[in-house]
Amino acid sequence: MVTSVRSDDSALIAESLRRPEAFAELFDRYSGLLYRYTSRRLGPESAEDLVGDTFAIAFAKRAKYDPDYTDARPWLFGILTKLISRHHRREAARYRAWERSAPPAVHVESPADRVASGVTAQASRGELVLALASLSAGDRDVLLLVAWGDFTYEEVARALNIPIGTVRSRLNRARRKVRAALGEVNPLEGE
Amino acid sequence: MDDLKMLRDLGRDLEHEPPASLVRQRDRMYGRRRGRLSGPRGWLVLGVAAAVTASALLVPRLMLTGEVDQLDSLVGTDVGEDPKPAKDLNILVLGTDQRSGGRKARSRSDTIIVAHIPADGREVLVASVPRDVVVDVPDCRGRDGETVPGRRTMINQSFTDGGVECTRKTVENLAGITLDHTVVFDFKSFKRVIDALGGVEVLIQKDVEDPKAKLRLRSGFQTLNGEQALAYARARYGLGDGSDLKRIERQQQVMQAAVKKLHALLGDPAALMRLVREGVSGVEADKKLTAVRALEILRVLKRDGSQSTAFLTVPWKPAPGDPNRLVLKQPEAERLWQTFR
To answer: Do A148 and B22 touch (CB under 8 A)?
Structure first.
């Protein structure tokens, strides 16, 4: 499903140079995706504005888009990530607050399907979310683009405009920290 | 357990669905003012959609009131002057998902729409109220005649409690408006009406393969029958990005297509009659909504045309302390209701 969409993002952006309305189609494709990702990191309150900002910036910069990349998502997430990084303190505070407010064992408010991952996993959520809060902004960007954005290393490198080796080293460091936080409390690897 | 997998699970817990209002951010790209509701290319244009489809569903009222015999002559005489409703009208339209085989009492209101039709016919406003917005539901008479005490709960609970009368009171209370008419239709009648219209033509952006909704469509302009149109309008997964926003857009797309067909039918009494017969069993309207009134409304809408109807969602935000519920966002919601008064 996604593959067919990817093929023509760049064509759409090119078309929007002549016909600005075409850019709205890009919004329709990805605004929901960007919103969900932002809501995970910063909560729903500011997600709407940030998605709007992202597209406003993208629209202004569209002439510089490299048409070799057919999929515009790394580009959009790169812009978004920069905007989110301005709020990295608030992001960490959100994770800590979530840890404090989430019931430790059973997450009552969640729909049943979300609970499916089980109580054991739930117990270490707190550790996980605190580990996220403690990561450096750069490491967290990479980790979450991979885990929540489902991007490849190449795409993350493109989004953040950093070498792919840096993506790997940041990701490794971030995952090491996360695993350490989980391992100390609840070594699940042995299952 | 894998740390990335745990992280993904956590992400899902932290995630929020995009609100319908997200679409307004689109206009910012072009430097337009935020919250501007109507535009030339109309992501919201379709609103009429709601209004006119609603009116399409008003037509069946003709049969319920026994005025069906007059229909031909009423439609036939509709030339020359444009009679207008004497005053602005507010109409509550509810779409319900009656469970197949279930009793009537178990149907829930799935779609809540308030349509404002100004006497001058200038701009029709159609506002949908998210069904899980938390509001003050006043004391209502329950379905068995008992009194259900007022409380703060989701707006669609009012329909479950006390039917359309209870939802009417709730919305009047919430919006500070008077609702002149109410129309309730179930999705089965929606299907039949679409079929009676001869299907609706919709532009499918890309191939659709959704076993869950039993829906399979090729991209391009496709004529959907009632079953397909309903599945397309209601499906949440396997289409677009799975967001409710997309779902609302598809609903509007279908309504808009229905409006087109309907307009063509207004001059064709025989086809209109067919529509009436098909739609009638699933539609209930209040007693004041006579055939003449319904036709007046239809005429205003017909002349009005879809370009000058604004479709919007009443501004809302997640309820404080409960991300699974919504509350109206003030003062934006109040500003919207003012235009309905």
So the answer is: no
Three-class HEC string of chain B: CCHHHHHHHHHHHHCCCCCHHHHHHHHHHHCCCCCCCCCCCCCCCCHHHHHHHHHHHHCCHHHHCCCHHHHHHHHHCCCCCCCCCCCCEEEEEEEEECCCCCCHHHCEEEEEEEEEECCCCCCEEEEECCCCEEEEECCEECCCCCEECCEEEECCHHHHHHHHHHHHHHHHHHHCCCCCEEEEEEHHHHHHHHHHCCCEEEEECCCEEEHHHCEEECCEEEEECHHHHHHHHHCCCCCCCCCHHHHHHHHHHHHHHHHHHHHHHCCCHHHHHHHHHHHHHHEEECCCCCHHHHHHHHHHHHHHCHHHEEEEECCEEEECCEEEEEEECCCHHHHHHHCCC
Q: In chain A, which residues have their Cβ closer than 8 Å to the Cβ of B23?
A: 31
Which of the residues in chain A have pLDDT under 50? 1-7, 105-119, 185-191
Give A68→chain B minimum CA distance, Å: 23
- Phi and psi, residue B147, nearest 5°: -90, 125
Output phi, psi for B118, to 5 deg. Answer: -70, 150
Average the pLDDT over B174-180 and give the result. Answer: 92
Contacts of residue B19 in chain A, CB cutoff 8 Å?
44, 48
Rounded Cα–Cα distance for residues A147 and A132 (Å): 12
Across the interface, whether the CB atoms of B22 and A32 are under 8 A apart is answered yes
C-alpha span between B321 and B316 (Å, rounded): 15
**Residue of chain A nearest B316, judged by CA positions:** A45
Q: What is the pLDDT of residue B42?
A: 27
Contact A159, A81 (CB under 8 A): yes
Write out pLDDT tens, residues B49-76.
344 444 454 444 444 444 444 444 444 4
The residue of chain B with its CA nearest to that of A114 is B13
Chain B residues with CB-CB distance to A under 8 A?
A: 1, 3-4, 6-19, 21-23, 25-26, 28-30, 34, 41, 43, 206-207, 209, 238, 240-243, 245-246, 249, 317-318, 322-324
d(CA B207, CA B216): 8
State how far the Cα of B278 lies from the Cα of B273, in Å rounded to an integer: 9
Q: A31, B245: Cβ pair inside 8 Å?
A: yes
Contact between A125 and B10 using a beta-carbon 8 Å cutoff: yes
Inter-chain contact A128–B242, Cβ cutoff 8 Å?
no
Helix B3-14 and helix A164-185, axial crossing angle in degrees, nearest 10:
90
Q: Does B211 sit behind a cis peptide bond, omega within 30 degrees of 0 on the bond before it?
A: no
Whole-prediction pTM value? 0.48
Name the residue among B129, B197, B135, B195 with its Cα closest to residue B337. B129
Contact call for A32 and B246, based on CB within 8 A: yes
* C-alpha to C-alpha distance for B122 and B85, rounded to whole angstroms: 13
Taking an 8 Å cut-off on Cβ atoms, the answer to whether A175 and B3 are in contact is: yes
